[in-house]
């Protein structure tokens, strides 16, 4: 065939493939160095829970069997933890898969999807994949502009995504503001609240949207085991919604979509409350150190309720990114979010944070 592109569905040519953070192994190969640290993808620097690792060891000899397609034990554990019936949950191969299932379940071509920008790029990807139309609303002072999002809603709007805390800024939507926002949204519009970083939040005005699920069938909450639980490599996330919504999403869910090892590790991770607190404490203390360091270096940053910080270097972030790579440190450049002088840096262990600051200070001094 002369032009194979003609075979492709028209919508896929509008897609911008997701570019993940640079892997440690790739940097070590390229630069011939060892001991590279990755502060780019908001992973848990402590790794997974010891209980999750033990669960993986116990389950490894069972991988010749298909996993439980219903994720019975994981749903049961989530139900106990969040005080909701098990029919309020859907489990996915990461929240990325759940986002895709939401698109496949609810979006028709030309319908509108509203989300803030900058925010998680997968919202745009899923919208375009389904041939729907993305409507982006700029953040106001790095925070979701809920009033403007509400004003953008029309009769063709189907979905609204709210990332709370927001990636890449780490800012939150106030619980009361979110409730008032919902009162402005028509009944035929679904509101998806992505709480990937929920476990890190300390702000008293923050309220999880899980409470709203109990009151409003339009609300869908997403969470993940990839961040504080340290299971990013296993790919497991979950959605929380009214049973009627879950039943619809299950119509497009692939059978056996969450592997056996991921299910076992996620159950164990949920039960390990001590490790969860330890992981939270590392981030809270790390943010204090980084905030103090940024103040000393006279660098602007956005106070964060997540495990990362959005930082203004006042110079080309990609140049600094390349210099940090040579120092064995991987961060995320802000140009992909429309902020070419900013970076997003994940909070690491105390040793990793100190190494990052020392390298950053050296690089900035060299460029004065």
Which regions are unreliable across 5 or more consecutive residues at pLDDT < 50? none
> Got a strand count?
13
Quaternary state of the chains: single chain
Query: What integer is the average pLDDT?
Result: 95
In DSSP terms (H or I, runs of 4 or more residues), the helix count works out at 13
The secondary-structure element order is HEHHEHEHEHEHEHEEHHHEEHEEEH
DSSP helix fraction: 25-40%
- Tell me about the largest β-sheet: 7 strands, mixed
**Strand proportion:** 15-25%
Pathway: Amino-acid biosynthesis; L-histidine biosynthesis; L-histidine from 5-phospho-alpha-D-ribose 1-diphosphate: step 7/9
EC number: 2.6.1.9
Modified residues (N6-(pyridoxal phosphate)lysine): 227
GO biological process, one term: L-histidine biosynthetic process
Question: How would you describe this structure to a colleague?
Answer:
The protein folds into two domains: 13-42 and 274-366, Alpha-Beta Complex (Aspartate Aminotransferase, domain 1); 52-271, Aspartate Aminotransferase, domain 2 (3-Layer(aba) Sandwich). Helix 3 (72-82) packs parallel to helix 10 (260-271). The protein has a seven-stranded mixed sheet, sandwiched between helices. Strands 9-10-13-12 form a four-stranded antiparallel sheet. It has helices at residues 24-31, 50-59, 72-82, 94-106, 122-129, 146-152, 175-184, 210-213, 243-250, 260-271, 273-296, 317-326, 350-366; strands spanning 37-38, 89-92, 112-117, 133-138, 157-163, 190-194, 219-224, 237-240, 300-302, 308-312, 329-330, 332-333, 342-346. It has 13 helices and 13 strands. The chain is 39% helix and 15% strand. Homodimer.
């Amino acid at each position: 065939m002369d032009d194979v592109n003609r075979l492709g569905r028209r919508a896929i040519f509008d897609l911008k493939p997701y570019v993940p953070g640079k892997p440690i192994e790739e940097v070590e190969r390229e630069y011939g160095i060892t001991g590279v640290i990755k502060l780019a993808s908001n992973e848990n620097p402590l790794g997974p829970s010891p209980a999750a690792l033990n669960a993986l060891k116990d389950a490894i000899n069972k991988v010749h069997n298909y996993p439980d397609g219903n994720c019975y034990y994981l749903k049961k554990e989530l139900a106990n933890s969040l005080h909701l019936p098990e029919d309020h949950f859907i489990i996915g191969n990461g929240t990325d898969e759940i986002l895709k299932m939401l698109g496949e379940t609810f979006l028709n071509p030309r319908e509108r999807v509203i989300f803030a920008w900058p925010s998680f790029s997968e919202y745009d990807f899923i919208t375009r994949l389904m041939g729907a139309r993305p409507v982006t609303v700029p953040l106001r002072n790095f925070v979701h502009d809920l009033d403007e999002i509400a004003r953008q809603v029309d009769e063709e709007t189907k979905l609204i995504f709210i990332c709370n805390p927001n990636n890449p800024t780490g800012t939150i939507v106030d619980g009361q503001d979110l409730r008032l926002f919902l009162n402005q949204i028509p009944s035929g519009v679904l509101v998806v609240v992505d709480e990937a970083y929920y476990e890190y939040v300390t702000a008293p005005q923050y309220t999880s949207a899980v409470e709203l699920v109990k009151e409003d069938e339009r609300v869908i909450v997403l969470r993940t085991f990839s961040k504080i639980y340290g299971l990013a490599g296993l790919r497991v996330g979950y959605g929380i919604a009214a049973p009627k919504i879950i039943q619809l999403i299950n119509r497009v869910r692939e059978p056996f979509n969450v592997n056996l090892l991921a299910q076992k590790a996620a159950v164990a991770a949920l039960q390990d409350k001590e490790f969860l607190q330890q992981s939270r404490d590392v981030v809270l203390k790390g943010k204090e150190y980084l905030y103090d360091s940024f103040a000393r270096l006279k660098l602007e940053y956005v106070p964060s309720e997540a495990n990362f910080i959005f930082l203004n270097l006042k110079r080309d972030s990609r140049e600094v990114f390349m210099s940090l790579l040579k120092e064995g440190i991987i961060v995320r450049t802000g140009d992909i979010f429309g902020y070419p002088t900013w970076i997003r840096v994940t909070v690491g262990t105390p040793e990793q944070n100190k190494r990052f600051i020392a390298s950053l200070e050296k690089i900035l001094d060299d460029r004065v």
